[in-house]
Design goal:
- The chain is mainly alpha-helical.
- The protein has one domain.
- Helix content is 76%, strand content 3%.
- The chain contains nine helices and two strands.
- Strands 1-2 form a two-stranded antiparallel sheet.
- Helix 2 runs parallel beside helix 8, helix 3 runs antiparallel to helix 4 and helix 3 runs parallel beside helix 5.
- It starts with a helix and ends with a helix.
- 43% of the residues are buried.
- The mean pLDDT is 84.
Length: 285
């Protein structure tokens, strides 16, 4: 089986598994299962990043990545309970932001107090830690916040479809039409044409499924889809940057044709905070 066939087969299996998970998430046990899956995925992404960034497992950066999602869980469970569908988005969003700031503060402290006399070491620490903490920490916290809402299945289905269509269209559009490199120093295979194909296809799908999107009419669904896709594409480049800094091609070899879990959901981790922020602001209006 060649790489493309393995990529398609793995993608189909993952899609079916996610669809089943979302379909059964409309009851208490299904909601708990969805939250547990998000937590496990977050732990796996943090584990993969620490593995290729440090060449061996280190608990300190691993725990830093998990701080935002820990704040999200403790705040939500402590005030409303998981199955009551009363999870306050503003409260959870604030908790994730606080968790991220704490993580970055600890990271900054480790840099400037342990390695403050070595500029090369400081640059290396920043390159390995800050983008990953923002990407994994904030992204997984927002994803968990979405998973705990009463209409989580619809929200996540819209987000997943838009991000996946963008990814597929960008991949095949880049292979067939790609000429100008998007960011050759970070990801040589990505092209401007592929990125444009992903943006157009994802936006069209997002608009066609506007009844799934929160607080949206046709125009606002298009606007939301554009921001979600741009965030997803940027997150994909950030993960490529992290791997390029560490000289690795894939974050792991767990998923045939895709690499690791971090490779597969990097775009989703970038897109989730955009949708979560959209719900956060509209819930105040």
């Amino acid at each position: 089986m060649n790489e493309l066939s393995a990529r398609i087969a793995t993608g189909v299996i993952l899609s079916l598994a996610v669809a089943a998970l979302l379909f059964f998430s409309d009851n208490c046990m299904g909601s708990i299962s969805l939250v547990l899956v998000v937590v496990l995925i977050t732990c796996r992404c943090a584990y993969e990043w620490v593995g290729f960034a440090y060449s061996s497992f280190r608990p300190f950066p691993f725990m830093l990545c998990l701080l935002p999602i820990t704040f999200e869980l403790l705040t939500g469970l402590g005030n409303h309970g998981l199955c009551g569908y009363e999870w306050r988005v503003p409260r959870g969003f604030g908790a994730s932001c606080i968790g991220l700031l704490v993580a970055l503060s600890f990271c900054a402290g480790s840099i400037f107090y342990r390695k403050r006399d070595d500029i090369t070491a400081i640059q290396s620490e920043i390159a390995r830690n800050f983008p990953a903490l923002v990407h994994i920490g904030m992204g997984s916290s927002a994803l968990l916040g979405l998973a705990t809402l009463g209409n989580a299945a619809t929200l996540l289905a819209w987000l997943l479809v838009v991000v996946c269509v963008n990814d597929i269209a960008a991949f095949f559009g880049g292979r067939s039409l790609g000429k100008r490199k998007l960011a050759p120093a970070i990801s040589p295979k990505k092209t401007v044409e592929g990125s444009a194909c992903g943006l157009i296809a994802g936006t069209l799908v997002g608009v066609s499924l506007s009844n799934w999107a929160p607080y949206c009419n046709t125009f606002s669904a298009a606007l939301l889809a554009i921001f979600v896709i741009l965030a997803a594409q940027l997150a994909d480049l950030i993960e490529s940057y992290l791997k390029r800094c560490c000289g690795v091609k894939d974050s792991a070899a767990l998923l045939p044709g895709h690499g690791g879990v971090f490779d597969r959901i990097d775009a989703l981790l970038g897109a989730a905070p955009v949708l979560y922020s959209w719900i956060f602001w509209n819930s105040w209006i």
